[in-house]
Amino acid sequence: MSKQDPKMNLTEGPIARKLLLFSLPVLYGNVLQSLNGTVNSIWVGKFLGESAFAATSNANNVMFLMLSSIFGIGMASTIMIGQSIGSGDIRQAKRVVGTSTLFFFTLSMFVAAAGFFLSPQILGWMNTPPDAIEMANAYLRIIFMSMPFMFCFSLIMTILRGAGDSKTPFKFLVMAIILDIVLNPLLIFGWGPIPAFHISGSALATAISQLVALAAILLSLYRKKHFLRITRDDRRLLRYDREIIGSLVKKGVPMGLQMIVVSTSALAMINLVNRFGSEATAAFGAAMQLSSYIQMPAMAIGGAVSSFAAQNVGAGKWDRVHRVTWLGVVFNFVMTGVLVVLIYLFNRQALGLFLPEGRAIEIGMTINTITLWSFVIFGITFVVSGVVRSTGAVMVPLLITFLALWCMRIPLSYYLADSYGLDAVWWSFPIGFTAGSLLSVAYYFWGNWKKASMLTYGAPKS
Questions:
Q1: Are residues 226 and 256 in the same domain?
Q2: Predicted confidence (pLDDT) per residue in 283-309, tens digit
């Protein structure tokens, strides 16, 4: 595949079918990654005890923060590659690949080294329980050592999605997940000549699975002669291109900050709910577990429309960009809506997967009744923001997220809690989500996002 596969060309052909087929592997990958985390947590929690579970929970929070920090930079490279391919400039796309690869590898080595030596301090800052510190440190140090594999594997998957291919990343993600699930009990408990590594075995399973998947996907891409591979003749593209690195940082950091704004607002909500006792906290935790799955279609569609729109922005096909937007909104309504209806039909049974019968389930049912439908509205923000970001307009989506969460939903939830009690808190979700969606749609119609650009030359024009 020395040239781009026509099936991966997102600037031609029927949009609806291609958008759906592109979104589904991303969605399935998100679901499998969540299930993988759940299975691994069961091995540790059930067989190594509460202290071990607390250790991995604290360490995984650090890992999530590290991966979140590079999410935006990965998305920025995806958009630049998509725009370059859409404009027919494969050389520029490979230039982005070369600089992004070198930049990511350097960044990952720095994170790995700093994290390895600072992991005890990091766990101390997180107030990790004393009985879990030693295990968490052993686990986290191995995770940090595997960061170069994780970062590079993540980058390759984003590059392929920017090139219009979501199936190949999914195949190798499945490989990594299956390997991780198989290796977890094997390395935790040992078998035959393989010693028992206990909690370190869980981290080793993650590291090995990421390394094997990285090697396998690279071997596959070079064997198939993928048109974006860096060949011997392209070695000079493996350099620190100041313009591209500037765009990766300038455009990527705000996208990464969006994730941090969302995650910190979730911590603020947990802090508030903790006031009402362990039953309320357990109910909120169970409801959020369910909502995390409900958000997955919107997240997958948001990523898909960003890749779609980026290629069409590069090609100057703004009519297709707008059609992608509205098809993405429709897909979100259908896919997210179906999941919401299913949870409403089996509300008690769904919460019963996480909670024993009692008051916590009643609280959880109230949370779901008030909040679940609003995640359909929240999905509009994912889709519209994905399209807007495809031009390089990243600051306004960050500002909208901050306004909707930290200037509206969080203050409103605390006010409702103090004035009307626990049940009123949940209304902050639909109100905050609606505000965010209205602001996003308003910016889409009347903002100047079409004039944004990822690189200083070749700025897309409407």
A1: no
A2: 888 888 889 889 999 999 999 999 999
Of the two residues 357 and 439, the one the predictor is more confident about is 439
Report the distance separating Cα 363 and Cα 106, nearest Å.
48
Structural domain count, the chain? 2
Q: Are 47 and 131 in contact (CB under 8 A)?
A: no
Alpha-carbon dihedral sign for residues 121, 209, 107, 386: negative
- Whether residue 7 lies inside any domain: the answer is no
Quote the CA–CA distance of 232 and 286 in Å, as a whole number. 52
No. of H helices and E strands in the chain? 18, 0
For residue range 386-413, list pLDDT tens digits in order. Answer: 999 999 999 999 999 999 999 999 999 9
What's the CA gap between 257 and 68, in Å, rounded?
8
Please state the rounded mean pLDDT for residues 251-262: 88
CA distances from residue 161 to 169, 305, 325 in whole angstroms, order as listed: 8, 11, 18
Q: What single letter denotes the amino acid at residue 32?
A: L
Helix (H, G, I), strand (E, B) or coil at 194: strand
DSSP, collapsed to helix, strand or coil, labels residue 1 as coil
Q: What pLDDT, on the 0 to 100 scale, is given for residue 6? A: 60
Residues 299 and 206 in one domain: no
Give the number of other CB atoms < 10 A from CB of residue 236: 9
Residue 297 parent element (H or E): helix 296-315
Domain boundary among 192, 213, 240: 240
Closest CA to 355 of 289, 420, 282: 282
Same domain, 176 and 324: no
Task: Output the average pLDDT for the chain.
Answer: 88
Query: Do 307 and 221 sit in the same domain of this protein?
Result: no
Neighbours of 233 (CB within 10 A): 7
**Residue with tokens 């490989």, as numbered in its chain:** 175
Q: Do 296 and 225 share a structural domain?
A: no
Q: What is the pLDDT of residues 418-446, one digit of tens each?
A: 999 999 999 999 999 999 999 999 999 99
* Domain range for 408: 251-451
Is the residue at 5 inside a domain? no
* pLDDT at 132 exceeding the cut of 70: yes
pLDDT digits (tens, 9 = 90+) for 192-246: 888 988 888 988 999 999 999 999 999 999 999 999 999 988 888 889 999 999 9
Please, are residues 371 and 426 in contact by the beta-carbon 8 Å criterion? Answer: yes
236 and 289 in a single domain? The answer is no
Tokens representing residue 224 in the block = 């198939």
Domain limit, last residue, from 188, 218, 240:
240
Residue 112 maps to a domain = yes
Query: Do 290 and 400 share a domain, yes or no?
Result: yes
